[in-house]
């Protein structure tokens, strides 16, 4: 018997532990190398942990709900049974096999499904755990075939199924005949849905940030006319040459990074009574998820990236965030954050600081407006593209002079984009 202790892998520089949510494999079950064996939650992200070897799980050392320390054993796998088990493993379980095997769902076996191998609405196989959840929650074969898997090889994970069930159930009205203690006001027809884990985490962090940091917000109106023309002239070029969508976000990030290089007092964090001055400029970028939640992946050393590299980073992180494919390292090390609320048509906002950072910018929608401009013939009224930028900052360590001057510098860079951007490299 070749017993191997499986170690909890490193999940990021600042992550020292994780909470075990669910064991996807139980003692006595065979696991392939690189197959997910458990789901864990850190203070930054929920993720799945793969097995580094193939074999049979002999013992689970950290139970569900307990803390798994990075670098410590979480289970024991017998790799010597790999060959024997491999020869006995049945063919992958298909949707038809699963549902035909259960009498309570026999009426679903005649539903048509896309080929499980086509990578679209089907899935090569589902685990016994998924089968059990589907039976308990009355998820039909047709419903299951529409769920897009986010696991290895497009495998449907427990999280995928639970997310689907949560969204489906939220559409059903919950009776509110009586008010339970502490429930608040509920009216006929109200829908009551418990916050998911990510929303609870966001709620806690937002409350903590407002409690810890006295927020001050400054505003400025920026002439974005040259930025709009610049992007219009390049977006087709980016699409054809680099296969990348060219949005305003990388331009906004680049201007922010340049201003942070000028005002290093904004690129700091607070640790108790200590101020940490950061050398790296790591920009957090708020991304809205399909679930309605918000996540802030980080572009590390943004000041050292070209406009093309920033564009690629923005698109990559945004896409992986919406597909739940971010890694813990993608969420670490942010020194300043931005939010492009203009993508929702918002004029301006007062965002909450991501702790322990001391500032966050919100870029509003770009709108055409009549404006007074100075020309060689004197003052004239012209149509210009305008945008409001807001800067929320921690008044414990950032006063109005620094917070306002930094905001003005970001605006200046955007208004004079043609003076500093390198077009020839594109």
Number of helices, counting only DSSP H or I runs of 4 residues or more? 11
Level-2 CATH architecture of the largest domain: 2-Layer Sandwich
Query: Which stretches are poorly predicted, pLDDT < 50 over at least 5 residues?
Result: 85-124, 173-183
Structural class: alpha+beta
Question: How many domains make up the coordinates?
Answer: 3
Could you estimate the helical fraction of the residues in percent? 25-40%
- Assigned CATH superfamily of the largest domain: Chloramphenicol acetyltransferase-like domain
Radius of gyration: 26 Å
CATH class bucket of the largest domain: Alpha Beta
Pfam families: 2-oxoacid_dh, Biotin_lipoyl, E3_binding
Keywords: Acyltransferase, Lipoyl, Transferase
GO molecular function, one term: acetyltransferase activity
Family: Belongs to the 2-oxoacid dehydrogenase family.
Entry keywords:
lipoyl, 426 residues, 3 domains, Single_hybrid_motif, elongated, four-stranded antiparallel β-sheet, 2-oxoA_DH_lipoyl-BS, Chloramphenicol Acetyltransferase, alpha+beta, seven-stranded mixed β-sheet, OB fold (Dihydrolipoamide Acetyltransferase, E2P), 19 strands
